Amino acid sequence: MNSAPLTPKQRERILRAATSAPSKHNTQPWWFRWDGDDLEVHIDPDRMLVFGDPHAREAHIACGAAVFAARLGYASLNLGTEVEPFPDDDRPSFVARVRVTTAAPDPRFETLYWSLPSRRTNRAPFKDAAIPPLVLEYLRDAARDEGTWLRVIEQEPAYERLLTLIREATGLEEEHLREERAHWVDAPDATHRSDGIPARSLGPLPHSPTGAVRDLAVGRDVTGREAIAFEAHPTIAVLESRGDGPVDWLVTGQALLRVLVTGTRYGVAASFANQALENADMRDEVASEAKHYGNAQMVLRLGMGVDVPPTPRRALSDVVAPKDEG
Ligand SMILES: Cc1cc2nc3c(=O)[nH]c(=O)nc-3n(C[C@H](O)[C@H](O)[C@H](O)COP(=O)(O)O)c2cc1C
Predict the structure, then answer these.
(1) What is the pLDDT of residues 110-132, one digit of tens each?
(2) Residue ranges making up the domain that contains 17
(3) Residue 311 beta carbon below 6 angstroms from any ligand 1 atom
(4) Rounded to the nearest whole angstrom, what is the distance from the C-alpha of residue 26 to the centroid of ligand 1?
(5) How far is CA 306 from the centre of its chain?
(6) CB 292 within 8 Å of CB 240
(7) Within a domain: residue 2?
């Protein structure tokens, strides 16, 4: 292991990895601070979705994903890390410290690091080819290795029941949620923004919506968006955690990114259909299908993907606190 302090270029590499993480509506609800070579990951209260994520569950998941991505960045520099969740009671925004250890990094992390830049949330149709069973097993392993459970829903009636719940949740969505989303999704100032989801990342509309593909601009007209055929039978999976508090959400985020980049490595793309999890009663129903941990955190649509464009990210200078802040 390398014992010299990190150079500015190495720090940049770790931060670029961390900020490539997915976040709901691309809010990027995080900021970072260096403490020596350790990275502090903070949740940003100004980037919370008051209606869409009232308990900050999904913001914590995003920060967890940033934590895992940062660990991959360290591993690419041959540095092992460990994660200390909520290390300081006096600073509640401080969700995790990624601490450099003397141990070698997990040998699998470096390969995963190289998949980070090509990971995307992919709302385009997938190829009509099944995910190879061995690759699905790798995805389950990735979730398990981070202390969560990826429940792939293959059997009826559970498959159709989940899709029905998602469709119902879409129908019940209240107007204030859609209004809040409109600040982030295809927003009027999207071309000047370094956050949010631009129209080009919304994907086309499915000819016959099943619920598996979420239309983030539902109820709005987006110019140039066509309706086309999607894959007939996407793989649907639910990521479950052991508990359902902030520490579990952070764990879920780490697992989520591990699952996603493992998929990227094998050509598996993902998008999400979390509508039913945003409604407390329906979330319980999704969880009641859960045979393992029972806390449903994310609903994933998985398949063999084609390339789609990236979403923007804020400049690193906007997400790193100066030394004396925090
Ligand atoms: C906690 C969480 C919830 C998300 N929920 C959805 C969702 O329900 N539907 C969707 O299409 N994308 C969802 N996303 C994906 C984000 O929109 C996406 O990560 C963000 O726009 C950045 O794009 P990227 O993943 O391509 O980097 C979610 C991401 C996270 C981390």
Answers:
(1) 999 999 999 999 999 999 899 99
(2) 8-119
(3) yes
(4) 7
(5) 19
(6) yes
(7) no
